[in-house]
Amino acid sequence: xxxxxxxxxxxxxxxxxxxxxxxxxxxxxxxxxxxxxxxxxxxxxxxxxxxxxxxxxxxxxxxxxxxxxxxxxxxxxxxxxxxxxxxxxxxxxxxxxxxxxxxxxxxxxxxxxxxxxxxxxxxxxxxxxxxxxxxxxxxxxxxxxxxxxxxxxxxxxxxxxxxxxxxxxxxxxxxxxxxxxxxxxxxxxxxxxxxxxxxxxxxxxxxxxxxxxxxxxxxxxxxxxxxxxxxxxxxxxxxxxxxxxxxxxxxxxxxxxxxxxxxxxxxxxxxxxxx
Length: 275
Hints:
Helix content is about 30%, strand content about 10%. The protein has helices at about 55-70, 110-115, 120-125, 160-175, 195-210, 215-220, 230, 235-245, 255-260, and strands spanning about 25-30, 35, 45-50, 75-80, 85, 90, 95-100, 130-135. A hairpin with a 4-residue loop joins β1 (about 25-30) and β2 (about 35).
């Protein structure tokens, strides 16, 4: 078996597979907007997801891949040694590696030990409640005002115009310096671009499988890598794959996302870069 450039020893993936590009996704490359059922946030029984379901699907996929690599004692290479010119000669920067190990305390309610043998849809049926937030609700005359510190109650005079009510609420929000409360349990920090996540995940899985060339990955009929921006540099297939997998301190690649997931964070660890 060929030596992997991404792990110290080759790995065999039996549970993790690349995600095929779906035809119902509409890509707006100019604005970086992706639409389709997977990217919609729907209200259900007064509850709503903070992010699109596809974001949680990708979190699940990265965790599943991490668990599969952990079972094989895989050591991930996040930076290869580079020889640099120096006044006194050459200096090797040294290779940076991280053993893949999932912090199970961070996933106490996820049934981690079963994930390898489950698909996302089946797992989601039993765990969706972990990620739901309450939408605004109308209090009835006999309802008790909630004491939940993450909520506040605001009485509205229905005789007023909606535009004025919105202005009042906006003024109240600013005058009282109300700040958005982050989810304590399983938050997804920052803006999420699901297709970009899928591109990174697919690139890593396909390179770990080591069956396709960079060009074959980027031009595959199953649309594993979506986005014209990433396809626009023909002849630079290696660089594109490297950016998807390796990333940087500012923009996390697939390996950094996977290690962040191991530590219980998605998409990006708040302090570590793993480089």
